[in-house]
Amino acid sequence: MSYNITLKKVESSRLPEVDFDTIPFGKTFSDHMFVADYKDGAWTNLEIIPFGPISLSPVNLALHYGQSIFEGMKATLSKDGKPLFFRPEMHAKRINASAARMCMPDIPEDLFLEALHQLVDLDQNWIPPSEGSALYIRPLMFATDEMLGVKVSSTYKFMIMTGPVGPYYPKPVKLLVESHYVRAAKGGVGEAKTAGNYAASLLPARKANEQGYDQVMWMDSAEFKYVQEVGTMNIFFVIDGKVITPATDGAILKGITRNTILQILKAKGIPVEERLLSIDEIAAAYKEGKLDEVFGSGTAAVIANVSEIKYGDLVMEMKPIETHRIAHMIKKEITDLRSGVLEDTYNWIVPVAAKTVTA
Ligand code: COI
Question: What local confidence, expressed as pLDDT, does residue 359 receive?
């Protein structure tokens, strides 16, 4: 199916005001955004319009009861200056998995992809060229029924905003093992990319910051024994040459960068395990000198080296970051795939093309 997206362009671009060398994450947005409304069982009013405020009723259901989901994805430039997406279909699928959990409507994959292509093609000059920078893309869907009362909304807005970003974590991160708060329990909404999961993380993160840590490391909700993920990322441990990441169990976000890493490791024949991993196993490996490296993964962060983990009274200081061979290799592989330096044998790279995308 092909969609008719109407276009209203900005009168003059804000791009000349932007310095790509000093862009903080998430504070600068490109000229245009995509907007669509869901009503009577269909997506309508498909538009690309100038980026700017939208008007909402104060009794909008999403504001009160949290029916709101999002994605985080990136576009980069190839070495010869062509705009590229990284695994856009997987993001289209994941937003619909989040939608299903939150009782929200599906966004047809071809609509999601067509809106992305048209928007990013239009604002492709906003993609920063330097390594480590990208155009961050934020698809968002939220309820728009106007009433009070906990119910499934019958109307929604789907939007896509984009903006140039530098690295999310410019330096290695320090993690505090959480022993009181939980991010998600099995059967909850931990696997969905829904706003409330991030709201729930704010107080624990603030407490960790007050102790000098960047993020918390979440443990399972039943026993506080098994690692789930860290603040805004999935997490990988290299123990005695083997890469281990917690298996997704319904409470952990199914990270697309996580999946990318697993596939790269398998393709390179590097031993990797997805399984239950207890914090005591990590502490024991540390004490035996076998905890070689720890890194977080996410679209925003890509790969974030971990320099320290605090678990109760035990402060685990990681080996020098220059020795974190797996994290460096993965980061380089993803960066080289995204810039077209490396041949994409995985079919992850999709050139941005404004042409109509059909299912
Ligand atoms: C992402 O990694 O894209 C996210 O959505 C996480 C958020 C903390 C920026």
Answer: 41
Sign, Cα dihedral of 335, 254, 90, 239: positive
Other CB atoms closer than 10 Å to residue 11's CB: what's the count?
Answer: 6
- Statement: residue 60 has pLDDT above 70: yes
Q: Give the nearest ligand 1 atom to 232 CA.
A: 8
Please identify, in words, the CATH class of the domain defined by 173-323: alpha beta
Ligand 1 atom at shortest distance from the alpha carbon of 300: 2
Is there an atom of ligand 1 within 6 Å of 201 CB?
no
Q: If pLDDT is split at 50, 70 and 90, which confidence band does 232 have?
A: confident
Q: Is pLDDT at 11 greater than 80 in this prediction?
A: yes
Q: For the chain, what are the domain ranges?
A: 6-167, 173-323
- Considering only CA atoms, which of 353, 350, 331, 334 is closest in space to residue 342? 334
When the candidates are 3.10.350.10, 1.10.20.10, 3.30.470.10, 3.20.20.140, the CATH number that belongs to 6-167 is 3.30.470.10
pTM: 0.95
